[in-house]
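Reopening: structure tokens for the nickel (II) ion complex, inputs below.
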Amino acid sequence: MSILKIARMGHPILRAIAAPVDDPMSPEICQLIRDMMETCEDAGGAGLAAPQVHVPLRVVLFKVPLERLTGREHDIAIDLSVVINPVITPLSDERELGWEGCLSVPGLRGAVRRWTRIHYAGLDQHGEPIDRIAEGFHARVIQHECDHLDGYLYPQRMEDLSLLGFVEETLRHPVSLRPEASSGVRP
Ligand code: NI
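Re-run output (same inputs, fresh job):
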């Protein structure tokens, strides 16, 4: 296993559209997933997409830590989980603001509006189908990671760049996101 180098904002791989994986069970993909898991754990991230480690393929992994749960039915704690060729469908018009960070944008975080409730499908690392409903942080992290596959970083999704800041400063000077738009994520 290897810890891979993470591309940072400004690297063109982060703006590229990633290609679908043809054979999720190939040795190369199995190795990529093992390395991405080790890299994500080492970096302390909640998720990682293959383009972030300079591989332009549609592979993401994520976890839903207990401390980020919003109490919604489909927001459950999930250990590091893999989705290959993910496809997202919003299940309502409702979107909410919540804080996000990204291993490719180190030191910063920003408030991003995301779909509150989504369906997503894809394959896991064993080639088995995934078919899930997600809400809250679970829905947020999936949308964030899948955006990487289409060349988007979270600042490009922000509507109010005054809510982009250094993590330390935003923790020192908390901004309350509007209650009706709050994700319930602790700032
Ligand atoms: Ni990211």
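The mean pLDDT is 93. The first helix runs from residue 27 to 43. Marking as resolved unless the reporter disagrees.
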